Amino acid sequence: MDPFSAVLIGGLALVTGLLGGTVWQRRRSSRASGRAEDLVSSAQREAQKILTKSEEESRAMAEAYRDREDAALEHRRLEATTLEERLTSREETLEQRGVNLTQREEMIIERERELSDSRKALDSKHEEARGYLERVSGFDSRKAKGELLQRVEDEARREAMVTVRDIEVRAREEADRRARRIIASAVQRLASQVVSETTVSVVSLPTDDMKGRIIGRDGRNIRAFEATTGVNLIVDDTPEAVSVSSFDPVRREVARIALERLVEDGRIHPASIEESFAKAQAEVEQSVRDAGEWAMLEVGVTRLHPEIVTLLGRLKYRTSYGQNVLNHLVESAHIAGMLASELEMDPIEARRAAFLHDLGKAVTHEVGGSHALVGAEIARRFGEEAGVVHAIEAHHNEVEPRTLTAVIVQAADAVSAARPGARREALESYVRRLEQLEQIAASYGGVERVFAMQAGREVRVIVDPGSVNDLEAAELSRTIARRLEQELQYPGQIEVTVIREHRSTDYAR
C-alpha cells in the first residue's frame, strides 16, 4: 500500500468517526440540532482540509521515494557497467598473454629445431675431421687407442719397476739397520754400567783431552751444542766422561748419540754439530717408531693411530722408579689379558686398555695435568673406544672406575709395578726406607724382632706372647700399617704380618 492511499483511508476513517459522533449527539438531544449541523459543517471542512493536506504529503513522500529509487538504480547501473568494462579488459589481457605464450612456444620449437640441426651438423663435421686426421696420419681411431693403451701400460710397468727397486733398497737398508741393532743389543748385554739418575746420560771419552775440544775456543762448541740440542752438557772432573742432562728423555738420547758421533769423528765445530744432530735425530725418530711397532707386535694390539704408536715409542726412553715405562706397558697388557681370561671376559679390550694406560707419560713434560687424564684425552682424540678411554683415565682413581675393564687395568698396573725387582730406587733411599720400616715396627711395646722382607714389600713383626695376646696382635698389625701409610712413601703396598708364637719346653730326666 502506497503512502497516499494510507493517508486517504485515515482521513475517511476520521470523517466517519466524526459523522458517527455527530449523529449520536443529534439523537441524544433534539434541542441541539442546529448546533450539530454547524458542527457537522465545520467537521466536514476540517476533514476536507486534512484530506487535502494528507494527499499533498503523500504525493511529496511518493515523489521523494521515487527519486531515491531512481538514484539507487542509476548507481547500480553504473557499477554493472564498470564491472563489465573490467571483465572485458581482463579478457583482452588474457587473450594477449595467450597469444604471447603461443609465440614463445613457436620460438622455442624453432630454436630446438635449429639446435638439433646444428648438433647434426657438428657431428658431421666431427666425423669429417676424424676421417681427415685418420687419412693424414695413416692410423684409424681403434689403432690409435690401442697404441695409447700400450704406451700407458709401458709407463706403468716402468714405474712399477722403479717402485720395486726402491722397495728392495729400503729392505736392504732395513736389514742392515736391524743387523746393527741386534749386534748393538748383544754388545750392550755385556755392559755393567748403570745410570743412577734418570735425567742424566753419561758419554765416555777416549781421553780427557777431548773435553777441551768439546768445549772449544772460548766455549763456542759447547754453546753451539747446547743451543742445537736443547740439553745441558756437564763437563766436570769425572775422568774420561761428560754428562748430558735434560728433562726430555728423547732429546737427551738424541744429544747423547750426537755427542758420541762427534767424539768418534774427532772433528768438533758448529757445522759438524748440526750435521751430527740431524743424523742422530733421524736415528732416534726411527728408533721411536720401531719401539712402538715392536710393542704392538709383542702385545698383539692392532689398529692403532700412527701418532699413538709414536708416543708409545717415546716411552722407550722414559723410566718410572727405574722401570722402563714401555716394558711396563707390555707387561701390564699381558697381565690384564690373563686376568680377563681368568674372569671369562674378552681379553682384547683389557689388553688394549692396559697397553695404553700410561700413554700420557710421553707428553706430561709438555702438557700439564695428570698423565692418566692426559692419556685419556689423547686416546679419545685419536678414536679409541669409550671403554678403553675410561679405563685409562680411571687407573689412578682420578675418575671413579665404572667398568670391570677399568678395575682389571688398575690391578694389572699394580701387579707390574709392585712385583719384586720391577722397580729400582737409589741404593741409599732403598736402605733408608728399609731401616725406617724396621724402626717404626720396633717402636711398639711387646715387639721382639722385626724383619723387612721382599724388598720392603713385607714386614714381619715377632712379638712376645706373654705381653701381647691374639687380639692385641691383630690390632698391632693394623696400627703399624696405618702409621706406615702416614709416614712413608712407597710404590705398591706393604704387607704387615704380626707373629705371636707360644712355646712350652720341658725336659725328661
Features:
single chain, 509 residues, mainly alpha, Ribosomal Protein S8, Chain: A, domain 1, 5 domains, three-stranded antiparallel β-sheet, three-stranded mixed β-sheet, 8 strands
Description:
The chain is mainly α. The chain has 5 domains: 127 residues, no CATH class; 54 residues; 88 residues, Ribosomal Protein S8, Chain: A, domain 1; 110 residues, Hypothetical protein af1432 (Orthogonal Bundle); 73 residues, 2-Layer Sandwich (Alpha-Beta Plaits). The chain has 15 helices and 8 strands. The strands form 3 sheets. A 3-stranded antiparallel sheet has the order 1-3-2, with helices on one face. It has a 3-stranded mixed sheet with strand order 6-7-8, with helices on one face. The chain has a two-stranded antiparallel ribbon with strand order 4-5. Helix 5 packs parallel to helix 7, helix 6 crosses helix 7 and helix 10 packs across helix 13. The longest helix has 105 residues. The N and C termini lie far apart (167 Å). 21% of the residues are buried. About 3% of the residues have low confidence.
